């Protein structure tokens, strides 16, 4: 029986109306068959009797009786065909398959991300190894240079001591000979050479030592400058936008509309007083404040002959006179009108610079307690304050006095960093 049904398709046993296997099938004159209940229900809702499948209209009346042969064949086919899973079960399986598919996609995405992160981590570790090797190499070179300098210095000192001893001995011998010659003669022979015009050449060893020390110091300066430039390049990634706060500006100061420039004027501005405004000293603070993390900004000082830059505690005294020092919440680097650079420590620290910076880079590491200044053009490190920062800190600016118009140029906060 199964082999017989295998030659037929299931569509031969499906009702056109309900799409299920025939139940009490009837055959109408056009030859098409339907479930009796389906056909009666269909004709009950239509005005004329016609075939639902081919649309043929029947004018003559005919008896609707069950096709027993087709009914038996349909029943046997229903018993022999493999059972289909319920629709609900199929839908549930499909939903589970979709969930599994989404899970697999997410797993693949996470795996790809993990592989990328792993690769990045390996690169970071390799970079750390290279950096550590470079640092170790520089430390070894530095120690070797220092040791060589100390050795040359010891050799030079020994040579100088030896020369001094020899000179003292010669002086004693000359004094002795001079005393003896006085007793034997009161005048020099005419053929004696005049030694007054003879110049003594310096010991060549001392000259060589001095040149070697000078060359070594020059090389060390070049190396230090190179390291400073590298450090400045590294901290540029912490650049932040800084804007001046007009509410804190002394009345003698004029802040630009974009809040990036401040200059000293020759007359008081008409501004309302408030607890945040400086009233005795021409200072202004930035709107931004920092309680943790690392930050870098640059200030153009140009050819100004006086200025003050740094950071201060948010809680500093802004009324009346005050002493600028770290103990009072000020970490400030200053250029005085005499051309002297000063770190406002207690007591003050004089800072020697070979070149006058036109742009100053300022790096604040609030977490590590470091406040550093750099010459942006050369990358040279100027000075670093070390302290424990516990309060919120604000960038500090003071363009200095006018000095008869010689110092009228503004301080300008750069919007972006310059590459070294």
From TrEMBL:
Gene3D superfamilies reported in the protein's UniProt record: 2.60.120.920, Zinc/RING finger domain, C3HC4 (zinc finger)
UniProt cross-references to PROSITE patterns, sorted A to Z: B302_SPRY, ZF_RING_1, ZF_RING_2
This protein's UniProt keywords: Coiled coil, Metal-binding, Zinc, Zinc-finger
B30.2/SPRY domain ranges (all copies): 222-416
Pfam family, one: zf-RING_UBOX
Bilayer-spanning residue ranges: none
Presence of the UniProt keyword Zinc-finger in the record: yes
Domain RING-type as annotated: residue spans: 15-55
Coiled coil: 146-184
Keyword Zinc-finger: yes
UniProt cross-references to InterPro entries, sorted A to Z: B30.2/SPRY (IPR001870), B30.2/SPRY_sf (IPR043136), Butyrophylin_SPRY (IPR003879), ConA-like_dom_sf (IPR013320), PRY (IPR006574), SPRY_dom (IPR003877), TRIM/RBCC (IPR050143), TRIM8/14/16/25/29/45/65_CC (IPR058030)
UniProt GO MF annotations: zinc ion binding
PANTHER family in alphabetical order: E3 UBIQUITIN-PROTEIN LIGASE TRIM (PTHR24103)
Official protein name in the record: Bloodthirsty-related gene family, member 2
Source species: Myripristis murdjan (pinecone soldierfish)
Source lineage: Eukaryota, Metazoa, Chordata, Craniata, Vertebrata
Name of the coding gene: btr02
